[in-house]
Design a protein that fits this description.
By secondary structure, the chain is α/β, with parallel strands linked by helices. The protein is 36% helix and 16% strand. Helix 5 runs parallel beside helix 7. The radius of gyration is 22 Å and the shape is globular.
């Protein structure tokens, strides 16, 4: 027994205090420990290195929309249409994902306003099976676009995905043309379609609705691409730049329009809506 333990035994007031396990968060970029409360108050952005952490759909909607927004109903789709099974049944994986989420799948749509400007906002949640795009994500995206068309509102989408959902095979890939058609309908109706790319946005989502916005915004440091860096390097047999597929690299090469910090995102979207949709809603 150490001397400190012996002192604690004789002096009860020096007993070890219980410290909550979730008091600190370790930043994945700079490895600094940050108070959870400070991290949350800073919109889940590291106050030391400005790393923008991943956040869920509900938190994203609270940060962007004015109070009083409403969620659209989740469209019903066929679950496990291919009766897929790997190490687990697909239905079991869905059940596990839903146990950790307040929503039925990875794409959530809300109707509300951004600093008083009406908008329909869709959010992809990477925390739900990597934000993967399947029948449910495609249906929810299209439901949001339909709402925007019916009510003459801009459609703003926050993307975050590892790509198509492998458990749904070709049916997941069919969501790419399906969502692309809805984006075209918005454009023909003269309604703004704005995309905010968050970390990470990859695969079939990048190859479809994620890169079709009238305005393309990205959060700082977001990973954005189709195939992974290792796959590309092995294909072209050349070493890629260190910041390849990051938001700042894409901005420099003209693939996106702006990189916006999370704290500035809400007023930036409001300003864009003033330009693009002064008479909608």
């Amino acid at each position: 027994m150490s001397w400190l333990d012996r002192v604690r035994n004789t002096l009860p007031f020096l007993a070890r205090r219980e410290v909550p396990e979730n008091l600190w968060i370790k930043c994945p970029r700079c490895d600094e420990m940050v108070f959870t409360r400070e991290y949350a108050e800073n919109l889940s952005v590291c106050p030391r290195c400005d790393h923008h952490g991943r956040i869920g759909a509900d938190e994203r909607l609270r940060q962007v929309l004015d109070e009083g927004f409403a969620l659209l109903p989740t469209p019903a789709v066929r679950e496990d249409p291919l009766k897929f099974r790997d190490q687990k049944r697909y239905t079991e994986r869905l059940k596990q994902a839903r146990a950790k989420s307040a929503h039925a799948d990875a794409f959530v749509v809300a109707v509300g306003a951004i600093e008083g400007r009406p908008a329909t906002v869709g959010v992809q949640d990477f925390g739900f099976m990597g934000g993967s795009m399947g029948l449910a994500v495609g249906a929810a995206f299209c439901a949001g676009a339909d709402d925007a068309l019916r009510n003459r509102r801009p459609y703003i989408v926050f993307t975050a995905a590892g790509g198509a959902r492998m458990q749904e095979g070709i049916l997941s890939l069919m969501q790419m043309p399906k969502t692309t058609v809805m984006v075209r309908r918005l454009r023909e109706a003269g309604l703004p379609y704005i995309v905010v790319l968050t970390d990470p946005t990859t695969g079939g989502v990048t190859a479809s609705y994620a890169m079709l916005g009238d305005v393309q915004i990205a959060e700082p440091g977001a990973l954005i691409g189709f195939a992974g860096q290792r796959v590309i390097q092995e294909t072209i047999r050349e070493k890629l730049p260190e910041n390849f597929q990051r938001a700042e690299y894409l901005l420099e090469h003209g693939m996106i329009d702006m990189v916006v910090k999370r704290s500035e995102l809400r007023p930036t979207l409001a300003r864009i809506l003033d330009y693009l949709a002064p008479h909608t809603g």
